[in-house]
Please model this.
Amino acid sequence: MPSMEADAARDAPRRAECRLILLEPLRSSPVRETLKIAVRRLVLAAICVWPCVVIGTGCTTMALRRPLPRSGPHGVYLTWQRDPTTTMSIHWLSRGESGVGAIAWTPRDEDTWRAETATSHALPHSNRVVHSVELTGLDPDRDYRFRIEGAAAIHAFRTMPADASEPITFVAGGDVYKETFDKKMYVEAAARDPMFALIGGDIAYDNGEPSRVKRWFHWLDAWDEYMVTSDGRLIPMVVAIGNHEVLGRYDQTPAEAPFFYSLFNWPGETGCNVLDFGDYMSVIVLDSTHTHPIAGAQTEWLDRTLADRVRTPHLIVVYHVPAYPSVRRYDGPICASIREHWVPLFEQYGVDVVFENHDHAYKRTPLIRNGRVDPDGVLYLGDGAWGANIRKVHVPENTWYLDRAVSVRHVIVTTIHGDERRHEAVNEYGEVFDSYP
Ligand SMILES: [Fe+2]
Model:
């Protein structure tokens, strides 16, 4: 100890001298300024990087930074125009110089390839052509393969079963690709091996603006990559229009939604349509006043369409703006108009479940009839948070029409089996955070 104390006493002046030597430059103005700048840069970098770290988009946004192909087909997607038990519509994009397209296709368990020529049209405000082939007369619940002329990849799809004697699963969501692209929700949705995805508007957020058409190229490429089941089937989509497909957003015409109506020939120019899955399920797609008014022709069509399907075991409706909003005002004019014109028809004809969107949160209502909770009422699920930033919800305990409301990205996984339905809300980490019944 004595020797240590002696050493410390001997070294003390030297340490003091070193501190002076180290501190002195800091007192000089140029060095201090340099350090200030360095600190500022570090703080700025942290501010910029932190949100990416928090929301986990650091690597997943990379998917959409891939260069678009300079030639050849890309952005393959599947829809339906007629009964999904026996048909499939195949679409893809190509650069403008390729105005003609064709596919070869075969049942997956055979090697009997046959050719089909596509119909093609220019995608407005772009150098892309949209190609479409509708295959009809297919067998229900059968896998098929197809290859697009000029591409190496072979895709697969499955037709819908002829009945619901075995469980059938689909996913539903909306408000899909807004600020950034995050693949997590797509991966979790595809992991459920759904037969299709029901998308309730605000898809690529093009806003009907020519400068934003590329968002569709990237999004369709990403769908093609991630929305594939565990056995390699591309997942078809059934779409409704939202305000972010439209220049002007509300009270416009199809001309103000040039990309939506060019990419999706169903539901088509009327903005509303019905898809009958054999005789066990019907999906009705509506336009919540973006390019067609709610009252008038659309409501009259809805009345006739529902009246013809009162015996359908699973009667399902999808549209964008909610009648029962989890975030926005209950007395908002579009919400009120839907409750005035459509909701009485849902109740009259026994609609089973309505998928709503637009509010960027999760919600589940109780069964509602005549403006109150009723065991014979209609279930509303929503509210559009597949990929958009989430919003703060109304408190369910203070809101008569909300049984559950959560600010979380999600898809709703619905399984029908016979006359039964079950819904599970799945977040982007694959966790089931709500279910009904
Ligand atoms: Fe919206």
Summary: The helical segments are 2-27, 29-55, 184-191, 214-226, 258-263, 297-307, 333-341, 343-349.
